[in-house]
Task: structure prediction
Amino acid sequence: MTEVIIVGCGLSGIVLSRLLKKRGVESIILEKSKGVGGRIATRRIEDLGFDHGAPYLRADQALLDLLAEAGLETKSAVDPNGIYLRGGLNQFTKALSVDLTIHREKKVLKLSGQEVGWSVETEDGATYAGKKVILSAPLPQSLELLQRSGVPFHPKLSAVAYHKAILALVIAEASLFDRYQNSSVATVLPMEGRGLHPKGYVVTATEEFSEKNFDLPDLELLEKILPPASAHAVSHAEVKKWRYSRPVASLEDSFHECDGSLFLCGDAFLSPDATGALGSARALAERLTRSLGS
Ligand SMILES: Cc1cc2nc3c(=O)[nH]c(=O)nc-3n(C[C@H](O)[C@H](O)[C@H](O)COP(=O)(O)OP(=O)(O)OC[C@H]3O[C@@H](n4cnc5c(N)ncnc54)[C@H](O)[C@@H]3O)c2cc1C
Result:
């Protein structure tokens, strides 16, 4: 029986697990994908990177302290939109997750309450027992899991909606900058300045466009948001969709306690971004270490 099982290895799950470890509380993280970092994501194409999740982090003190803890100050850079990392933002979550116990490709399907704690079932048929379980996925996904498990939850949680996001990862010989200067459909971020793909661009569709067109096939989306391939010598273009990119608004609470052994945290709390995810994890770590008497 593990002390704490954390579902999700994004920033909030990682920070929570680190803080628990520092305070002597054992935790394991179950993550559905192969990688770590969740929505702080850098993808490789032609072995060169694209930041295709959050492009920036807010430069507040808690985040700067954490960057220093991860040993990444020298790679960090700031522009008017926030902080980014030369070499890709996922270095941040990767560095923070070293030394944590992470089980990858473990999609959690169901929770069952036990006499003590919870039993957690994953898609591959494995079962984990934990005294406490923390769900750190985007809130609608955590609520789906609770619903599937027959665990009731407070109705205010269902009110947190997330923006959808459609992005195109593009490799082009000619700069795409001019194309999007006055665009009402999308903005463009070159990857070169981040030490990523020198001819790589991340084109992000507006929230309005993403909401309206989310279910269109990739080819149709590319036709709508990209210039004709010939005009900019586009040699590669692919779509990335995030059904839950960031909350429209967050709850004021710093986390949610379903009962003394089941909690929800992440960017649905405190503020609808990575800063909220971080603050939520820190507050929950305090709460858990108090109750576990460490
Ligand atoms: C396109 C985009 C742009 C953004 N822009 C910004 C920005 O400019 N500034 C900013 O601060 N933030 C931005 N964000 C939001 C920011 O990325 C998030 O707020 C933050 O990364 C959330 O971290 P988290 O740990 O709460 O959740 P996540 O990073 O989503 O982590 C949750 C993890 O849970 C895993 N998971 C889900 N379900 C299960 C399951 N059943 N079993 C096991 N694992 C599961 C997921 O795979 C994921 O790894 C952006 C996000 C996107 C996608």
Notes: The pocket of flavin-adenine dinucleotide is lined by residues 7-13, 30-33, 38-40, 53-58, 107-108, 136-138, 141, 145, 165, 242, 245-246, 266-267, 273-275, 277 (CB under 6 Å). Residues 218 and 239 are 6 Å apart (CA to CA).
